[in-house]
Amino acid sequence: MGGKSNKVLVVKFGGSVLSSPEDYLRASDIVRDLLGEGWRVVVVVSAMKGVTDTLLEITYSPRESAGELLGRIAEMHRKVLAGSLDTPYFEKYYLDLSKLLNELAKTVWAIEVLGEVTPRIRDFIVSFGEKLSALIMSSVLEYRGVKSRWLTGGDAGIVTDESYGEAKPLMPETIYRVRDSLYPLLDSGITPVVTGFIGRSMRGNTTTLGRGGSDYSAALIASALEAVEVRFYTNVEGVLSANPSIFPEASTIKKLAIEEAMELSYLGAKRFHPRTFEPLKNSASIARILSFYNPHGPNTVVHGTCDGDNGVKAIIVDDDIAIVNVEGPTMVGRIGTAAEVMSLAWKAGVNIRAISQPISETVITLVLSRSDGDKLASMVEEELKPRGIVENVEVLNDAAAVAVVGCGLSKPEVQGRILDIVKGVEVYGLLRGLRGSSMTIITKPDTALEVARRIHQEVVMGG
Ligand code: ASP
Ligand code: MG
Fold first, then answer.
1. What CATH homologous superfamily does 8-235 map to?
2. Which of 320, 322, 321, 340 shows the shortest CA–CA distance to 330?
3. Taking residues 216-235, what's their average pLDDT?
4. d(Cα 379, Cα 273) in Å, to the nearest integer?
5. Binning pLDDT at 50, 70 and 90, where does residue 2 land?
6. Measuring CA to CA, how many Å separate 90 from each of 139, 232, 235, 415, 453?
C-alpha cells in the first residue's frame, strides 16, 4: 500500500486504444494494478475507435444511412460487452447497454422524422459514444472485482456554456462540482468512470468540448481534484522527439514544460485537444503520456513552465503546406487590408496555419494547408483585386514547414544555433510560438527535411 492511499490518479484511455474486449480488459488490469499500489483512481474514457465519427456521420445524413450506421454501432458495443464479461455480469450490463442503445435509436429516429438536426441534438447524439464506452469500462471493472460506477461528464461536474460542439467549461463551478461529485465516490471506495468529451450546460443540456476533448476532460478533473497525476494511455510510448518514420533515431521526450506540450498538442504524432494542458498550468498535478501496451516503458511527463528549462525537445516537418502571398504597394499604410484578407479566409472556411508581413507592408504571407491555397487565392483575386486593394496574388505549393519546439528557443544562444543551421537556405518565413517556446521555419520541402535532420541531430539529440 505504501503512503499513497490519499493520492488520486486520473487515468484516461483514448479511443485509439479502445476497440475490443481485450482492450477493456487490459485497461481494467491497469486500473487494478494502480489500486493495488494504493492509488485512488478516476478513469476517463473516450468513445471506442471510430464511434464518434460514425455518430457524427449519422447526424449529417439523418435520412439515408442512419439506420445502418446505428446498427453497426449497436453490434460493435454488444460484441465488446459479450467478449469481456461472463454471466451473470453479462446479463446485468447487457440490459443497461440496451437501454442506452434504445435511447440513442429513439433520438436518431426523431431526427430522421424531422429531417433536421440542431447543434444541441448533435451533441446529445455524439455523447452516446463516450456513454457506451464508460458503461462497458465500468462493468468490466466490476466484473474484475473493482467497485465502480460510470458518470457522464455532466454528472461528474463539468459545467459548460452552450457553444455546442465546442463548449467551454465554466470555472470555478466545474472545480467545485467535480470535487463534490467525485470525492464522495472515492471516499467510499468506488472507482468512478467518467465519460470524456462531455459536459452539461447550466440549463442541463448535454454539450461536447470539441474533437479530442476527452484529454481536456481528464486534465480538468485532475486539476479540480488536485490529483497527483493525469495519465494518458495511448498507442505511442510518450511523445517522440520527431516522426520516427522520417528520423529513425527519434526517441521519447522525458519531460515537457506545459508551454511545449501546448505547442506540440496539435503538431505531434499523438494529437491532443488544444486546451488539454491548460488546466495544469496553475496546478500541482502533472501529466504523463504513456503506452497502453507497455505502461512501464518510456513515457513523457508534462509539468511546470518554461522557467529554468533551456531544452529543445522536438521537431516536426509538415510538407502539406501552401503559401499564399498577397502583394501590392496598394496595401502599404492602408488600414484594414489584413482584416479583409483574414475575413475572406474565415468565409472560405480556410484555417490559417501561419501569417507574416514585413514592416514595409508590401506583402501578407499566409501559410495554409496545401488544399486551401488555390481556394483562398482565387477568393482574394475575385474580391480584393477588382477593388484595387491588392495588386497580385501568388500561390506557392512547393513549400514545407519545420517546427522546432523547446523552451530554450526563447534564449538568444539557442536561437543562434538554429539560425546557424538555417544559414544559406532559402527561407520564406520564420515565426515564433507561445512565449518563444517554438520556432517555425517555412522553406522548400527538400530543404525542410535537411534542416530538420540537422536540428534534430545537433540540437535536439545533441542537447
Ligand atoms: N470521442 C471524441 C472524439 O473522437 C473525444 C475524444 O476521443 O477525445 O473526438
Ligand atoms: Mg483522443
1. Acetylglutamate kinase-like (3.40.1160.10)
2. 340
3. 97
4. 31
5. very low
6. 9, 28, 28, 59, 53
- Pocket perturbation via mutation, ligand 1, pick of 211, 233, 265 by most ligand atoms within 8 A of CB: 211
Cell digits of residue 199 = 459536459
Place of cell 484578407: 341
pLDDT in tens, 49-65: 999 999 999 998 767 68
314-460 fold: VC0802-like (3.30.2130)
User: Which residue pairs, CB below 8 angstroms and at least 24 apart, start in 419-422?
Assistant: 421/451, 421/454, 421/455, 421/458, 421/459, 422/451
CATH code 3.40.1160.10 region(s) in the chain: 8-235
| Residue intervals in the chain for CATH 3.30.2130.10 | 314-460
Residue of 180, 209, 184 lying closest to 195 (CA atoms): 209
52 lines ligand 1 (CB under 6 A): yes
Angstrom distance (rounded) from CA 355 to CA 326: 11
pTM, to two decimals: 0.91
15 C-beta closer than 6 A to ligand 1: yes
Ligand 1 within 6 A of CB of 300: no
Contacts of 404 (CB under 8 A, 6+ apart): 312, 314, 315, 418, 438, 439, 440, 441, 455, 459, 460
Q: Does ligand 1 have an atom closer than 6 angstroms to the CB of 211? A: yes
Strands 392-405 and 40-45: unpaired
The pLDDT assigned to 255 comes to 96
Residue 4 is predicted with a pLDDT of: 41
